[in-house]
Amino acid sequence: MKTPKLTRREFLAAASGTVVGIGLPGTFVKLSDAAQAELAQELRPDGRTRVPPGQHVIQKIADMGGEPGTATRADWRLTIHGEVKRPLTLSFPELMQLEQIDLICDVHCVTGWTLLDSQWRGVRLGTVMEMVHPRPTAGFLIFEAAAGYTTNVPISDMSRDNVILAHTLFGSPLPRPHGAPVRMVNPDRYFYKSAKWLEGIKVTTEDEPGYWERDGFSNTADPWQQQRYSRYRAS
Ligand SMILES: Nc1nc2c(c(=O)[nH]1)N[C@H]1C(S)=C(S)[C@@H](COP(=O)(O)O)O[C@H]1N2
Ligand SMILES: [Mo]
Fold first, then answer.
1. What is the mean pLDDT of the chain?
2. Residue owning the nearest CA to atom 10 of ligand 1
3. In the chain, what percentage of residues exceed pLDDT 90?
């Protein structure tokens, strides 16, 4: 999953907190070991460590790539379909008419980086899911993104208040590399569960492992349980 390959010199530079280009678009800045150790001791209100085990904190959002969509705010549509009583297609202006949420959260990539205090604005997943009336048979949500990327979560994620459809990042329209016009943000699972360039949400009875999940990454992706690879941990 695009684990950056650092040369030894770059790795040492990264470990001491300098800016390092790693051949990905964007810049990767890792904190010093001392700063990491201090942050790792912070606790969340629920008592879990702020930085999940095996993660290191970076200072700027990494652009992890993926095949972008071409939709603009003008022609973007989100289709919610499958095991629902009222299938729905939303335009961008319709999304903006729903209740807007500002979310400050930490995000955790399975390759090991964590970005603290990322700032998003958007609409709670629960808000759009309540509009479609899932059938009693509904068990899973399959997020459908541009270029065939998919990722899956249990439908119970719709009642997590920190799961949003985001259109704004740090006060500006979401940049294309980060999923414009609209992406998912689901901060309590590894970030591959947060589909960029979102086009659809399919509600299903049976689970459908997504792009990375079929490739051996965890289906459940809990960073505090280090659920990274399904072959290491049944999930
Ligand atoms: N459509 C789509 N969404 C995606 C991906 C992708 O390749 N395509 N990569 C995932 C992974 S592995 C991560 S870590 C995050 C990266 O988001 P960022 O590029 O905004 O940091 O997007 C996730 N969502
Ligand atoms: Mo990732």
1. 87
2. 192
3. 74
- Residues measured by CB to lie within 5 Å of ligand 2, the ion: 109, 191-192
Distances (CA, A) of 28 to 2, 68, 129: 13, 21, 35
Most informative mutation of 182, 196, 197, 214 for ligand 1 (most atoms within 8 A of CB): 196
Protein residue whose Cα sits closest to atom 5 of ligand 1: 66
**Average pLDDT of the segment spanning 124-151:** 98
Question: Does residue 215 carry a pLDDT above 80?
Answer: yes
For residues 209 and 40, give the distance between their C-alpha atoms in angstroms, rounded to a whole number. Answer: 31
How many structural domains comprise the chain? Answer: 1
Residue 230, in any domain of the structure: no
**What SS3 state is found at 43?**
strand
pLDDT tens digits along 25-36:
345 567 788 888
Q: Is residue 79 part of a domain?
A: yes
